[in-house]
């Protein structure tokens, strides 16, 4: 009788061990799946940030042309001290969208550069991870260029295109 009870206890222990092993495997799969979902969400958020920065910086080209038309053919009031002149409500609106979605407070946090003269301008925004997947340097200028680059304070053009 003792042998039967001991045998049954051993079988029960083995069954409990198998059940525990299976449950542990399920938990590992769930944890792994959870990590994959979190990574996917993070990547999607980063891609969304890239698209948002590009769209808002590109929209500044329209505002630059409006400033040019309103200011006797001059882009001078577009920039102030190497940054966007945020006293203009349309510029401030685009800038605020960029800053808030990236969770930043001011232009220098995301390396905004803005240089303008009477007939030329260049605006760029540089954003580093983790807000984006890889470093983003996006630039627009009066030639109509919109793409990779940084605003140059001497030529008023996007460089490193």
Describe the structure.
- Helices cover 51% and strands 18% of the residues.
- With 161 residues, the protein is of the alpha+beta class.
- It has one domain (2-159).
- The strands form three sheets. Strands 3-4-5-6 form a four-stranded antiparallel sheet, with helices on one face. A two-stranded antiparallel ribbon has the order 1-2.
- Strand 7 and strand 8 form a beta hairpin.
- It starts with a helix and ends with a strand.
Percent range for helical residues?
A: 40-55%
What is the number of helical segments per DSSP (H or I, 4+ residues)? 2
* Number of β-strand runs: 8
Based on secondary structure, the structural category is alpha+beta
Task: Describe this protein with a few key phrases.
single chain, 161 residues, alpha+beta, four-stranded antiparallel sheet, two-stranded antiparallel sheet, 2 helices
In short:
The protein is an alpha+beta fold and 161 residues long. It has two helices and eight strands, in the order αββαββββββ.
SSE topology sketch:
Layout: H1 2-70, E1 79-80, E2 83-84, H2 89-101, E3 112-116, E4 121-127, E5 136-141, E6 146-148, E7 150-151, E8 158-159
Antiparallel strand pairs: 1-2, 3-4, 4-5, 5-6, 7-8
Helix pairs in contact: 1-2
């Amino acid at each position: 009788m003792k042998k039967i009870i001991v045998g049954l206890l051993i079988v029960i222990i083995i069954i409990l061990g198998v059940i525990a092993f299976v449950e542990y495997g399920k938990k590992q799969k769930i944890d792994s799946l959870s990590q994959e979902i979190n990574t996917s969400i993070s990547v999607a958020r980063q891609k969304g940030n890239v698209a948002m920065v590009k769209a808002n910086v590109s929209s500044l080209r329209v505002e630059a042309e409006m400033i040019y038309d309103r200011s006797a053919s001059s882009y001078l009031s577009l920039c102030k001290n190497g940054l966007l002149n945020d006293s203009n409500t349309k510029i401030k609106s685009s800038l605020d969208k960029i800053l808030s979605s990236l969770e930043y407070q001011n232009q220098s946090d995301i390396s905004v550069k803005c240089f303008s003269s009477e007939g030329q301008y260049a605006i760029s925004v540089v954003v580093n991870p983790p807000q984006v997947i890889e470093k983003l340097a996006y630039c627009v200028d009066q030639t109509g260029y919109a793409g990779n680059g940084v605003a140059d304070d001497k030529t008023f053009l996007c460089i490193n295109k």
